[in-house]
UniProtKB/TrEMBL annotation:
It comes from Sphagnum jensenii. This is Aconitase/3-isopropylmalate dehydratase large subunit alpha/beta/alpha domain-containing protein. Signal peptide: none annotated. Residues 41-59 have a biased composition (Polar residues). Residues 40-61 are annotated as: Disordered. Residues 85-354, 358-496 form the Aconitase/3-isopropylmalate dehydratase large subunit alpha/beta/alpha domain. Pfam families: Aconitase (PF00330). Keywords: 4Fe-4S, Iron, Iron-sulfur, Lyase, Metal-binding. InterPro entries: Acnase/IPM_dHydase_lsu_aba_1/3, Acoase/IPM_deHydtase_lsu_aba, Aconitase_4Fe-4S_dom, Homoacnase/IPMdehydase_lsu, IPM_dehydratase_rel_enz, IPMI_cat.
């Protein structure tokens, strides 16, 4: 059951209008001094704050959404409304091997060859995309990150040198979005920018996290700030008890199918409700990870005891969680009774091409891929392994397994699968005939060089736990990708067809 509530426009509530489509932001370097001057006058390279006098009538209470509150704090404003452009202080800037070299090049061009980053402890460098390949250009990208980290004395550089044995690299983590969470870089109330569209994954921690381009990232490297247009918020209320055959991936595919890939363009997507309250942090990450597939600027789940418990032992940095005010204005509110939903897939070639898994039972497949920031977390593999163990069957098609991080890889070999007589995921997968879990990385999710593990080099049909199924996304431009939950992926592997997991659960 889905109920859509059309709420009043923020302009009618606050007397401050905003456009539905974001306008182009000013050139971030337009207020800077000339390149030759920047190294000698760094104070001129930061945007100036405008001092405001308090209203003569005294302070006025203004209800805000969680996203507005985070940006207000980061911009040192008392209140914000959608459509405002504000200079926002970054708490973390993340970049990886694909975009890092470009970001570094822009930073040096605009701030000087000898310039220093604004904060060596707030820049996080994570090689993860094109790692285990013989491609010289891909390997050179990691070298550039390493050289920059040494030059800048970057505290958090998760390096890899020995490509033949990832376990020989203790600093190497794997997929940036999962690594950011596991290493304690995701904290409630903070602002995280990353040169990857799925940076919105970190919104699961109750923070503002969004993907940016190399130019914006280069600017942040030098100043620690970025000009942001405050997005309006869409609220998604997910109530009810999750059926045993559903996972968070089903919910976000349901939502994207409902509002389309353009339905949240430059909007914040906030997730609340009893179903969200009951979710683990990895479930919440799955929800927030794919908001960009609906065009969203960011996703956010209010921080709670589940969040705080996850962060124990991961960070010593103090943080301040926020939540939307009861009177906050939302652009729209969508309500879902999750107990009424069924397993779904996103058919080729768009994340909003939603279909019920049971209606695609005649689609013959060639392979299954379980991995990525969206579907390669520990709980994703536990779910897939549990279904396979329950079935007692073996896979009918090649089934590739790519843990997101070294920690996830270790979990596959140490954590017992519920209901599997003490077997680990690795043991269950081996018994079912799956491929041996690969080295942690993004692997085939973004295609990559032709020697990338599990890359689709032929026009085959694949059920995948990844987040995008555009033509060529995983390699061959004629390949067909069905996005699905780990349950549906595992069930499909056992039959050789797109399969509703209820056949095995």
């Amino acid at each position: 059951m889905i109920i859509i509530l059309l709420l009043p426009s923020p302009s009618s509530c606050h007397g401050h209008g905003w456009r539905r489509d974001p306008s182009l932001l000013p050139n971030p370097f337009s207020q800077l001094c000339e390149p030759s001057e920047r190294a000698s006058c760094p104070q001129q390279c930061s945007p100036e704050h405008t001092q405001r006098s308090p209203a003569s009538s005294g302070s006025v209470k203004h209800a805000m959404t969680a996203t507005e509150k985070i940006l207000a704090r980061a911009s040192e404003k008392g209140q914000l409304v959608p459509g405002e452009n504000v200079w926002v202080k970054a708490d973390i800037l993340m970049t990886h091997d694909v975009c890092g070299p470009g970001t570094i090049g822009i930073f040096k061009k605009e701030f000087g060859q000898n310039a220093k980053v604004w904060d060596r402890e707030k820049v996080v460098l994570i090689p993860d995309h094109y790692i285990f390949t013989a491609d010289e250009r891909a390997n050179r990208n990691v070298d550039i990150l390493r050289e920059f980290a040494l030059e800048q004395d970057i505290k958090y550089f998760y390096d890899i040198k020995d490509l033949s044995n990832f376990k020989a690299n203790p600093d190497y983590k794997g997929v940036c979005h999962v690594a950011l969470a596991q290493e304690g870089h995701c904290r409630p109330g903070e602002v995280l920018f990353g040169t990857d569209s799925h940076t919105c994954n970190a919104g699961a921690f109750g923070q503002f996290a969004t993907g940016i381009g190399n130019t914006d990232a280069g600017f942040i490297m030098g100043t620690g700030k970025l000009l942001i247009k405050v997005p309006p918020t869409l609220r998604f209320v997910l109530d009810g008890e999750m059926p045993k055959h559903l996972l968070a991936k089903d919910l976000i595919l349901q939502i994207i199918g409902e509002i389309s890939v353009a339905g949240a363009t430059y909007r914040a997507m906030e997730f609340v409700g009893t179903a969200v309250d009951a979710m683990t942090m990895e479930d919440r990450m799955t929800l927030c990870n794919m908001v960009v597939e609906a065009g969203g600027k960011n996703g956010v789940v209010p921080a709670d005891s589940t969040t705080f418990k996850y962060l124990e032992g991961k960070t010593t940095v103090p943080y301040q969680p926020v939540a939307s005010d009861a009177e906050a204005s939302f652009l729209q509110e969508y309500r879902f009774d999750v107990s009424k939903l069924e397993p779904v897939v996103a058919k080729p070639h768009s994340p909003d091409n939603r279909g019920l898994a049971r209606e695609c039972k005649d689609v013959k497949i060639d392979r299954v891929y379980i991995g990525s920031c969206t579907g390669g977390k520990t709980e994703d593999f536990l779910a897939a392994a549990q279904l396979m163990a329950t079935s007692g069957q073996t896979v009918k098609v090649p089934t590739f397994l790519v843990p997101a991080t070294q920690k996830v890889w270790l979990d596959l070999y140490t954590l017992p699968v519920p209901g599997a007589d003490g077997m680990t995921c690795a043991e269950v997968f081996s018994k079912a005939g799956c491929d041996t879990p690969a080295a942690p990385s993004c692997a085939a999710c973004l295609g990559g060089p032709r020697d990338t593990y599990a890359r689709m080099n032929e026009a085959q049909v694949c059920v995948s736990t990844t987040n995008r199924n555009f033509p060529g996304r995983m390699g061959n431009k004629d390949a067909q990708i069905y996005l699905a939950s780990p349950y549906t992926a595992a069930a499909s592997a056992l039959t050789g067809f797109v399969t509703d997991p209820r056949e095995f659960l």
